[in-house]
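Subject — a protein and its fold
Fields — amino acid sequence, structure tokens
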Amino acid sequence: RGCTFRLAGIEDIPFLMKEDEIYRANYSISAFRDEAHWRYMLTEGLITEYGSEFWIMENKQNSEKKYCRIPEDGFGTGLIISEISEDISIDALGNLFLFCKEKALDRDKPYIRLNLHNNSRAGRMAISMGAKEGTPYAWQIKIPEKALFLRTIKPILEKRIMASSFSGFSDKFRLNFYKSTVDLIWKNGELISVKPGQGECPFSFSLSDELFPILSLGYRTWQELRYIKPDIFPNSEGSALFVETLFPPSNSWIYEQY
């Protein structure tokens, strides 16, 4: 349908960086890749275990230009597509799939696997076309210093509180990790202190250490996590709503940086 495909070169770095900006705008947690990252991936990185083909697709009829990433290695025996332009159209995606089908046949790959977020535009369209919905994970993250992390995201937490029914909140809220506790001290909607818990606190939420990143980064709600860890609990309806306000669910997806 008037589409051409070519391997990306260093002259395409400005375009690829703009594509990254579109990708990052769609996720609360994403990878940042600057000019040096892209230059490495398109040159020296090609001979590493993360080496990938970056294909540029151009439609001469409507000037549409998109890209995809095909890693040289990965899990399974299929052709893996690990990145697709976030704002790709359905016609362009169809052309891309035809191209990838040809590559899969040429390379004796029995299937095509999309390593994408199910809620990405390409992911949703592929599922609507009949692709099997997978169960990918967006990232693996550990937060060793929870208090420091909470202080770092203070502006985000305050913004969420300001836009909620807790606007102007003044009180202490405790996160109980069983072996340790962290108190968030609020005054008129401002988070004025984050410190180890002391004394009694009737307004609290309990969960284990390893689940804190999953909750605080919006990958799963506390209700979803409770299916696998029944000992997660808010001590009141108010604290349940407060946790949901602080840590709402959101889409996140981290591309490989190399």
About this structure: The two ends are 32 Å apart (CA to CA).
